[in-house]
């Protein structure tokens, strides 16, 4: 391999673009390839297809090492090392849809040449074997394969790339893993070298475990509500145990995004396809689905029938610091509320006012107080910092009934209550503890 040849990255979504720009930051030349002409045209003229904090600045700083193309021929002209970072959305069966991965790997194989293919996309265990068997079937023998899963969080992706907890590299031949490991020179992190199948499983197992932690704390929150305990304190008390750790114990209205829902489902299907019933993940998924709907129950308990009532959603994206709406709790919540006959208004700092295809009939406005105006209740769906700074006194004044359900336990209940709102969170346990048996 030529050490100074550029790295190729196929796919300019969150993962591909962040990977490309961070490798450029480490000093590599990088060619980004995407079949989407509009995306590449935008990137060439400095327009980013996604919002990721710090990415624009890093692109500016590395611009002379980055180039963009829609052509596989151009990509393969100079690049031997090719990262695949195309999406693997869920298929109708819940398995990962690998059609884009297959298209990319075959486009590369078909053009021949000695290459090292590095899989960044989240793919089911066994994909490396399948791709290489596919190459053999096509008569291609010069493409080496490495699995190098990503662990980037949207909103913190650059930091996660440059300061990772670990770098996982799975290879069929150690020398291929060595080449990929060398690309990360300059990053201080433990490198886990393993087989391809194990690397693929590390990715799924990590996401499934984090999702399990969230569903676990959400169930604890639901019990806290019944028995008068406070889940925030419970999580703090649990998290101080090093074996448990403080992360991903934030109770709320459930996880969303492009990764956890899809990957938990895909791991469950992967297990099922190989004859194992992954019982725990079934519960994790079910808890997450129900958690979104509990907010509707909370509203009904206070407002009675929701028919004709106005409910304002604060935050639509699946988490703050992103413009991503994939599998966001807000989508289910808005539709459920409308199903109950409620009128729904919404505000999100990243979603422009007006009609949005994911929220038919929802009045999206660009001022939170306008969304709250005349509302019978508000639900805080995404913990955007701006809601922490909102004038809650003004909010109470414009609402018909100043009721706030904090779906992320984000706000200080005392501050909100002092502003004149009725406040409820998730698992804050204001119920009386159960009585002693008589
Ligand atoms: C997740 C993982 O955290 C990354 O390590 C992984 O690389 C990525 O998926 C992926 O597979 O590509 P991401 O989906 O960007 O990253 O977002 P997270 O910050 O993990 O949050 C996921 C969801 O869980 C959000 O809806 C968030 O609100 C929710 N969450 C998170 C909770 O409800 N409670 C928590 O304690 C933590």
Secondary-structure map with pairings?
Layout: E1 7-10, H1 14-25, E2 30-33, H2 37-44, H3 55-62, E3 66-69, H4 72-78, E4 81-84, H5 99-110, E5 115-119, H6 127-137, E6 143-147, H7 157-162, E7 166-171, H8 174-183, E8 190-194, H9 196-227, H10 231-239, H11 260-273, H12 279-303, E9 310-314, H13 329-339, E10 343-347, E11 363-365, H14 368-372, E12 377-380, H15 385-388, H16 392-398, E13 403-406, H17 413-418, E14 422-424
Helix pairs in contact: 1-3, 9-11, 9-12, 11-12, 12-13
Bound molecules: uridine-5'-diphosphate-glucuronic acid.
Could you characterize what this model shows?
The protein is an alpha/beta fold. The protein folds into 2 domains: 7-194, 3-Layer(aba) Sandwich (Rossmann fold); 228-424, NAD(P)-binding Rossmann-like Domain (Rossmann fold). The chain is 43% helix and 14% strand. The protein is built from 17 helices and 14 strands. The strands form 2 sheets. It has an 8-stranded mixed beta sheet, sandwiched between helices. The chain has a 6-stranded parallel beta sheet with strand order 11-10-9-12-13-14. α5 (99-110) links the parallel β4 (81-84) and β5 (115-119). The longest helix has 32 residues, at 196-227. The radius of gyration is 24 Å and the shape is globular. The N and C termini lie far apart (78 Å). The model has no long low-confidence stretch (mean pLDDT 95). The chain binds uridine-5'-diphosphate-glucuronic acid.
